[in-house]
UniProtKB/TrEMBL annotation:
The keyword Lyase does not apply. This is Replication protein A OB domain-containing protein. Keywords: DNA-binding, Metal-binding, Zinc, Zinc-finger. Residues 171-265 form the Replication protein A OB domain. The lineage of its organism: Eukaryota, Metazoa, Spiralia, Gnathifera, Rotifera.
Length: 274
């Protein structure tokens, strides 16, 4: 599965979570003891706390330990005029998925360690209610990593292949009332425009963009691909593609879809495996 993320398309102004009593970072280290350090080390644990299924994660549960596979990861995004930064990723077990976030210095600790397709064990994180303006997963909560978060890689064999879950909608069902929300579509590519490099004044930067038209049995719609999605889109016309997390927009009176950080694009061959 070819998962692509992008940096430029960031929605809203997310605020980092701060915990005033955090004084030291605690991680599992090479000798299986817990010591203070500047960055986490991913190694096998010497204890096995109770694992909570992702679907059961709640602020009502004091024990918050999960295991799962990373199915999506964004690039680094900035906010507050560049004064802050964050990235997010989604972790899934056999029955559910949840969004995870890391801000500023926490991002520096964990960004390079999180790999799509790798299974991890997570402990000592903060659970907050998800903001559905920016988080379109079905889970009621999301995870914020902290300086005290412990994570380590676990065997991929613990989990069978976990497909990216899709909740498809018909193109004809995409309505103005859905503007600002995300949808998943399964459609045939009917037209692919060339890649353009445009200047986006709002972000004061140049971005790559590409228009793609798709159709299903109910209608047609245009999809705007940004940056890596635009430059790495290798699908040809008449190929069936699954798109996950496309943002619904209204542009000049016409509905269209656009990629965001956590968009996933599966070509026909990959889609047949889902």
């Amino acid at each position: 599965m070819d998962l692509i993320s992008q940096t430029e398309k960031c929605l809203g102004s997310p605020e980092p979570w701060y915990k005033g009593t955090v004084d030291v970072s605690t991680y599992i280290c090479q000798d299986n003891t817990r010591n203070a350090g500047e960055s986490p080390v991913l190694l096998e644990p010497n204890r096995m706390p109770a694992i909570i299924p992702i679907a059961q994660l709640s602020t009502l549960i004091s024990t918050r330990v999960v295991e799962g596979v990373i199915i999506r990861k964004s690039d680094v995004c900035t906010f507050g005029g560049g004064s802050g930064k964050f990235f997010n990723f989604d972790i899934a077990d056999l029955h559910s998925e949840i969004r995870c976030k890391a801000f500023n210095e926490i991002l520096d600790m964990f960004f390079g360690l999180i790999k799509v397709g790798q299974a991890y064990h997570f402990e000592n994180f903060v659970l907050i209610r998800s903001n559905k303006l920016y988080n379109h997963l079905s889970h009621e909560f999301e995870i914020n990593l902290t300086k005290n978060t412990i994570l380590y890689e676990i065997s991929d064999h613990i989990f069978p292949t976990i497909p990216v879950p899709f909740n498809m909608v018909n193109i004809s069902d995409i309505a103005i009332s859905m503007v600002g929300k995300c949808v998943d579509v399964f459609a045939t590519v009917t037209y692919i425009n060339n890649v353009d490099l445009i200047f986006v004044a709002k972000r004061n930067t140049h971005c790559y963009t590409r228009n793609v038209s798709v159709a299903d049995d109910t209608g047609t719609i245009d999809i705007i691909l940004w940056n890596d999605f635009a430059t790495k889109f290798s699908t040809v016309v008449n190929t069936k593609v699954r798109f996950k997390n496309l943002l619904v927009q209204l542009f000049k009176g016409k509905l269209q879809l656009t990629t965001i950080m956590t968009t996933v694009i599966n070509s026909e061959d990959e889609a047949q495996q889902v």
